[in-house]
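job 3f2a | input accepted
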Amino acid sequence: MLFEVFILFHLYMQGQRVMQTWVPVDKVEMQAYFGLLLLAGVFKSRGENTLSLWGIDGRDLFPAVMSRKRFILISRMLRFDDRETREARFQQDHDKLGPIREVWDIWVSALQRMWAPRSEVCVDEMLIGFRGRCPFMQYMPSKPDRYGLKVWALCECETSYCWNLQFYLGKPSPTAKREEGLGKRVVMELTEGLTGTVTTRAVKIAQK
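job 3f2a | predicted structure (208 res):
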């Protein structure tokens, strides 16, 4: 899968730059790494010290899958773009999503290939809770997390399948004027490739 190859390549490049003794990660180990991340979510380990997952009172499955040292090393080396060219790409495209743009587009494209929406879809916004450093972090007091990354999603109403996604990256610069017709633009871009009356109705709602 292109998604996996892409991540493995940049992970390999970063590891080679930082460590002379870096052992490349293969597809199986990468799947094991992401599996542990998902398992940490199942155990509701948000905010828990990573070291505790391998501690005496930790979960037996974590050390059985991967050593604690290897997990931390992969976490430090994980990259989704070429860090050496990041600044040049930003100067050229002024893309705030540049560090993950390529892998993000691959992911969204995969979502669209795997499913064809049926008769009804909807577009709505969501806030992914986040308090780290990010140039487009939003404050939305009406949301449970209040601080985070704002994402627009187009989902199929019947199955809730997410077919398209778009980050809100904020204004291009602090002095730029507020974009007019933002809702209409987002709906038109998210529904690109779809046909029928859904697009027309969604645009009318966005214009209100």
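job 3f2a | Helices lie at 2-18, 27-42, 61-65, 68-77, 86-93, 101-114, 182-190, 197-207.
job 3f2a | closed
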